Amino acid sequence: MVRAQTPSSDQLESRRLKNREYMRKVRQRQRRQLQEMESTVQQLEGQYGELCQQTTRAAQHAEVVAHERPEGQDQDYTEVVMITKRLGAEKLLLQTALKQKAEWRRQFQRILDFEASSVTSTPEFQATFNFQLDSVDEAEAAEVFGFHPLTEWDFTRTLLDNKQDIRFVAARLLQASEFDEMNGTRTHRMQAFGWDIVQRVEGSVMEFVFTKNFVGLDVLDILQKTWVNNMQLAEFKKIKAETRCLRVLQQVNPNAFVFVRDVGSPSEISIFRSVFTRFLVESTAQVHPFDSDEDLTGTGYVLGTQSVDTHCPQHPTEEESSGKVAWADLTLSIEALDVVNPSTGETFQHIRWIGRTDYCSEEHALRDAADTLQSMLRWEMLMVAPALNLVSLSQH
Fold this sequence. Notes:
396 residues, Alpha-D-Glucose-1,6-Bisphosphate, Chain A, domain 4, ten-stranded mixed beta sheet, 8 helices, bZIP_sf, BZIP domain-containing protein, coiled coil
């Protein structure tokens, strides 16, 4: 890696001011979009009400026409048929409007959730990079990897998808053990090195939840160091040794990047490729202590990873054409929370690794289950253990 000069204090201050102004404009734009979406939902509700009234009036009119025909007389059904056709068309239009309304409401709620969960990146997360990122320009990203830059709305949806997927995996794996063998797929539970480990493999999909409590950790410092190391191939290989390529395709904002990553595999598929966003955001979540029946609220940060859709590369390589390159889907989250127990006054740090991956086959999913567990233990050894040692030394 090429080393860059450390920015001066004036440069850092200028960068912070630019970031603050950038985030102010982002928040203004999001509020404006939220207001526009709310107005659209109200318009759809008005249209829905009008269609309901029109349909009711038309149905009543058709009934009156039918009853006004004299008995025994050959009835002319032309008008009734026309009314029936019109009612059918209005019904179809009404169904379309209802579907559109439901979709707008869903998107509207996602925006509200987005605003409420403080997912917007903030300048306080900024880390100073004393290295040069291995970046790909936009043309090469499109030609080689089929990637086109994410818009702000694309990125927002990616964040929300990650949050929703992570919640689903956690709820599914942390439920009672009597559900462990549903659908003939076993959920494996164990404890090792202080970690509570839950993993489940179903077909090509592997899901996991790893949790552990620590004392004396600086949660932001730990995730910022992880964030920086995960941007450098040499450092990232210390966690996931099979990684062959790690390049930046886009910087979405100061706390979110899009990467392409190749991971080697000792099989007919020699490379698993992923294009994903990685982001560092604030988090508030419920934590269930092992020695308490009450949930506690933890506040901290999340380092998230979420695959993004790509198009077919314009010029696939020989490896891609021969089937030696396959795409792996990633949904990952490393969450670090400060938790205070109000009953005892105890303060601790709760670490959660949660995720789901799809590596195309059950064989590769089982291998990924072992690799992910090893990666988590390497991460603890390289990132957490030194910080705990510093805390221990400072106390003596």
